[in-house]
Amino acid sequence: MAEVSAEARIEAPSGKVWERLTDFGSYGEWNATHTSFPDGGPETLAAGATFTENMKLMGFPAEVLWTVEELEEGRVLAIRGKGPMGVIVGTRYSLADADGGTAVRVDGEFTGAAVALMAGKLKDSATAALNESLRKLAGLVA
Q1: 42-84 residue pLDDT tens
Q2: In contact, 72 and 51? CB cutoff 8 Å
Q3: What is residue 58's DSSP assignment?
Q4: Domains recognised in the chain with CATH numbers
Q5: How far is CA 120 from the centre of its chain?
Q6: Which residues are within 8 A (CB) of 124 and not within 5 positions of it... i.e. 6 or more apart?
Q7: Residue 24 gets which letter from DSSP?
Q8: Of the candidates 32, 19, 13, the residue with the CA atom closest to the CA atom of residue 103
Q9: Which top-rank group of organisms is this from (predicted)?
Q10: H or E element at residue 32
Q11: How far apart are CA 122 and CA 83, in angstroms?
């Protein structure tokens, strides 16, 4: 298993950050690993909703079938997906009010036999992508 996380303070109200975070049409503007949603994002954002995303990590393209596992409107979005080579990917976004701004935390995990072969490089690449994504997200909402 490879676990990664990133945190940032974004100088915008949490509602504005949440709106951008859940606007699947604008993912390409801030999400560093996103390349496309071949069928669009989830029709309705709710626990159990599924959607497919094309991504690129460590230079490799991957298609992930995501399921929304947890949704607390304005605060938490957790998704888990099945990728190539039996890799399971989890991503959890958490938002909290922070003195007029928003504290954003992203936690990710990768499991599967293929992950063991490249866990160190995967952690480095995914952590860099999370930090870049939060920087871009902050630039869009601040």
Answers
A1: 989 999 999 999 999 888 899 999 999 999 999 999 999 999 9
A2: no
A3: T
A4: 2-141 (3.30.530.20)
A5: 19
A6: none
A7: G
A8: 13
A9: Bacteria
A10: none
A11: 14
